[in-house]
Amino acid sequence: MSTARDQANSLSASGVRFPVKLVPVPVKDVGLNAALKAESDPLFEVKPTIFDEFVLTGKVAVVTGGNGGLGLEFAIVLAELGAKVYAVDLHPTPSSDFAAAVNYVNRLGSSLEYRSSDVSKQGVISATILEIAAENQGKIHVCVAAAGILGPEIDCTVYPPEMFAKVMEVNCNGVFFTAQAVAKQMRLEKITGSIILIASMSGTVVNREMKWLPYNTSKSAVIQMARSLACELGSSGIRVNTLSPGHIRTKMTAAVLDVQPATEAFWASLNPMGRIGAVHELRGAIAWLSSDASTFCTGSDIMVSGGHTIW
Ligand SMILES: NC(=O)c1ccc[n+]([C@@H]2O[C@H](COP(=O)([O-])OP(=O)(O)OC[C@H]3O[C@@H](n4cnc5c(N)ncnc54)[C@H](O)[C@@H]3O)[C@@H](O)[C@H]2O)c1
């Protein structure tokens, strides 16, 4: 009996144009498939499999902006899942938080290394990605592009062009240069990897009362960039998604929260949960997006914002 794929392929051969090459749907002995196997085969080993789908043992992961804040938390969760992790950041030497993270990860039996680089300079970040790949037989399986800057809060009518350009250079160009270098390497090595671009809820809604036009613009660009990358890279089996956090206290937001402490209560009042988020509350989303637990997810924007955008 001919399948839908056979029919599509024969139509394609007859000149009908299909937008993508069709590939087989994966079959896995998990969930109901496992239950049915167990029913018919008494020797079939019954065990929970969901946690195995998150395992990154033997994989190589790169996290930009990994010297602190969200990036360092992402690096730790990837290492906990078994990946060999490289954190890339602007500073020549890593922070004391990073040193503690390395000790912690080493005690877990995983590896976390630091590389200094600048994502906004294509030649620099692509050389860093190539070096990391070279240390790992060409292989990079996961990339989280988290390096970003907020830029100063200035009225849109007088926002200085050089400051607008700076925010775009890091948040937009830098994310593109990172994803581009990693995708090139994944394609070369035929790796069905996962690339996660850290956008923001500010790419979809505007943070009330905050004059962050360049930041918001850059994050919208990142969301559309991920969709475009997902379309071009899907046929190579490379997935690209965005993770869009809501308000979370890090060095970036501390620049506002520490200067105007009332801001935290204001931001907290803007979502139904009545609080801002903690860095660790993104661990599950990163684990899911980076692993085989999300193999059918690409071109999606995963919003983790305490429901900020519902209102
Ligand atoms: N904290 C939040 O509430 C929040 C919300 C939504 C999205 N985000 C996004 O999450 C990401 C991480 O932000 P964070 O809150 O951890 O901020 P952070 O300031 O703590 O971390 C950002 C990191 O990026 C690095 N960086 C900046 N420019 C760089 C460059 N040119 N090359 C390499 N590294 C560079 C910084 O040195 C820093 O370590 C950013 O993209 C940010 O826009 C943060």
Give structural notes.
This protein is of the alpha/beta class and 311 residues long. It has one domain (53-310): NAD(P)-binding Rossmann-like Domain (Rossmann fold, 3-Layer(aba) Sandwich). It is 41% helix and 12% strand. A seven-stranded parallel sheet has the order 3-2-1-4-5-6-7, with helices on both faces. Helix 3 packs across helix 10, helix 5 (122-134) runs parallel beside helix 6 (161-188) and helix 6 (161-188) packs parallel to helix 7. The longest helix has 28 residues, at 161-188. It is globular, with a radius of gyration of 21 Å. The relative contact order is 0.12. The model has no long low-confidence stretch (mean pLDDT 95). It binds nicotinamide-adenine-dinucleotide (NAD). Nicotinamide-adenine-dinucleotide is lined by residues 64-65, 67-71, 89-90, 118-120, 146-149, 170, 174, 198, 200, 245, 247-248, 250-253. Residues 64-65, 67-71, 89-90, 118-120, 146-149, 170, 174, 198, 200, 245, 247-248, 250-253 line the site of nicotinamide-adenine-dinucleotide.
